[in-house]
Amino acid sequence: MIVCIFEYLFQKKIKELKEIIAKQTTIKEKYDPELIKLLHKGKVMDDEDAVDKYSIDAEDYVVLVKQLPGKPKPPVCRI
Question: Is CATH 3.40.50.970 the classification given to domain 2-66?
Answer without folding.
Answer: no
